[in-house]
Amino acid sequence: MAKIQSVVALEVLDSRGNPTVYAKTVLDDGSVGKGYCPSGASTGKYEDFELRDQDPKRYNGSGVLKAVENVNKIIAPAIIGLEIDDFRPVDQKMIELDGTQNKSKLGGNAVLPVSISVAEALAKSKKLELFQFLAPYFGASNEFIMPLPHLNILNGGKHAVGSTDFQEFMIVPVKFPTFSEALRAGTEIYHALGKILLERNYQPLVGDEGGFAPSLFSNEQAMELLMMAIKEANYLAGENVFIALDPAASEFFYKDVYQLHRENRTFTTDELIDFYKVWVEKYPIILIEDGLAEDDWRGWQRLNAELGAQIDTVGDDLYTTNKTRLQTGISQKASNAILIKPNQIGTLSETIETINFAKQNDIRFMISHRSGENEDTFIADLAVAAGGGKIKTGAPCRSERAMKYNRILEIEAMLGAKAKLATRDTSQNSGMI
């Protein structure tokens, strides 16, 4: 058992230059843990509350001094002195201190950094790597699955205004012997795409997640560019490299229709599903995340019924890492997969609970970053510990993205023969909902 000696929070900056909360926990044996809260640009309305100061004189109202104060003056006094062997009692204490459904009193952005920092401090106290410390919470064995990287190499939507309507165009290297080889393939394709864009006189600007952000005429033009880049890098689309999409459809859903402004086209739910079906036949797509809006339950049912046997139908805004919403999705057979973002639900305990509930119900899951990130590599350890076989943390560009991939490289080297890279099959659970 270790005793919490101190907990301190600060207002720091994320990868977009916006304020966020950093917390540091120190145990009485000298172990130190750190945690940060990321922030999304396209956010689901059912996510935990992100507490901002709303003071126009500081950071255009986006300061987080209130959240920092909640850590230093409410959370810290309540947990300092606790003897712990597990981070879950601390999480439960913070949930009780907040007392709301969505962390609106303390702020989800105050609670999460403390939760992560306590877990990291405990791992160090036990002289374990963070992924090793977390693995038993998922019932994991000594054989760790390295996640397949889903690299967002072309950014659009709110992550790159002026590019495409769809938010993320990802490549997924499969059938490689190691994570390092899969990452190398993805990185070579990324650079091939940059070369192609330069040859066509597009400025090689990058979006929030490090992917290129050309101003294209249509969303399909992005697909064509990805196919060209895969070929240019001497890989085979549909054999060892596949494509994944995150349209982030809630962002272009308005008055009961989906509006693709780059193409000046409007779709009903059924028309958009038919649009995806054509693309799945035409391109090597294995995953569509947030293909429909967060409240379009009827549409999700049809999307999953018609494409769920071929691809991952992933709910992000639909579920917001919330076990209760996932239960609804399971009962309605709305998807076969869920995206996991810890800051959507607020504590590591609740994140683990949702992941384990997904596993119990044969729902696939993918660990994800946010568009506003930081230098923390927590989600890399979480992805390895949870064993879901999938991670997305942007392009292999910008240090706040690359360092997550680099951490998995470090874990892979550390584990040696015990590190097994997920395949397209092993990253998918056996059942469908």
Secondary structure elements and pairings:
Layout: E1 2-13, E2 19-27, E3 32-36, H1 65-79, E4 83-84, H2 88-98, H3 108-125, H4 130-134, E5 144-146, E6 148-149, E7 151-155, E8 168-173, H5 179-199, H6 219-232, E9 241-246, E10 253-254, E11 257-260, E12 265-267, H7 269-282, E13 285-289, H8 297-307, E14 312-315, H9 323-332, E15 337-340, H10 342-345, H11 348-360, E16 364-368, H12 378-386, E17 390-392, H13 399-415, E18 419-421
Parallel strand pairs: 5-18, 6-17, 9-13, 13-14, 14-15, 15-16, 16-17
Antiparallel strand pairs: 1-2, 1-4, 2-3, 7-8, 8-9, 10-11, 11-12
Task: Describe the structure in your own words.
This protein is of the alpha/beta class. It has two domains: about 1-125, 2-Layer Sandwich (Enolase-like, domain 1), CATH 3.30.390.10; about 135-420, Alpha-Beta Barrel (TIM Barrel). The protein has helices spanning about 65-80, 90-100, 110-125, 130-135, 180-200, 220-230, 270-280, 295-305, 325-330, 340-345, 350-360, 380-385, 400-415; strands at about 1-15, 20-25, 30-35, 85, 145, 150, 150-155, 170-175, 240-245, 255, 255-260, 265, 285-290, 310-315, 335-340, 365-370, 390, 420. The strands form four sheets. A nine-stranded mixed sheet has the order 6-17-16-15-14-13-9-8-7. It starts with a strand and ends in a 12-residue tail after the last strand.
